[in-house]
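Continuing the batch. This is chain 6 of the set; chains 1 through 5 are on the previous pages. Same settings as before, nothing changed between runs. Recording input and output for traceability.
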Amino acid sequence: MPTDTPPSLLSPNHFPKRLADLGFAGQVINGMEVITPPLCNVPAGPFLMGSDKRHDKDARDDEQPQHTVTLAAYQIARYPVTVAEYACYVRATGQQPNGWQSQVKELDHPVINVSWNDAQTYVRWLAQVTGQAWLLPTEAEWEKAARGTDGRIYPWGDIWETLANTWDSGPHRTTPVGAYPGGASPYGAKDMAGAVWEWCSSLYQSYPHLGNEGRENLNPIGSRCLRGGSWRYAPQLARTACRGSDIPDSFGDDFGFRVVLASRS
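Output for chain 6:
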């Protein structure tokens, strides 16, 4: 990928050393700054999606029935999109989310106050600048990356531990990405429980997930899926199968997203 300055020469005011140490990469491409995240490989194959009341007492109706979904291989960002990453987009486009002047004081926190429409615009920009196939994860891609193939309730297993930023265990606000390393998923993805609700590309529809229901159609108006819970909510909503949703132009101080590299037909 052509760049006109090495990653190490990006301004520390734009690309904190902590993010570089976590594996983020800073580049300038055709005069435009961009930061890309470290990635986790999720292999092709089946996984258990949704919940079984016999296994998870907190299972909700919209998580049922639990069923097997098979996905192609993809790569998912290890962390939610950070303020530093999103700031590259803001500098390029001038499109600031709500409360931006406060957000830019915490470059290694997940970006917040982004709608589904904002997140889609960001991934299109990132794909155009880098020439890579950046996308929002589908709901199924998000869930497999969070729980692996064995239907676990939390990224680390079936028992709640204070390994995530939720209302019960956190400071009642966002924290730097990677602040809870013990909460990693089987593939190494971090902050998939708590932290911020993460937008997925998918329309919110009932289960089972068959793959031919049009839930990945980006055009229809309808609620889009949010996953992972957030710092505002109890651990029950940070379960890997828990489903949230909102309208595409909605945003909040606990709404963020992460990205994937995926080839989809």
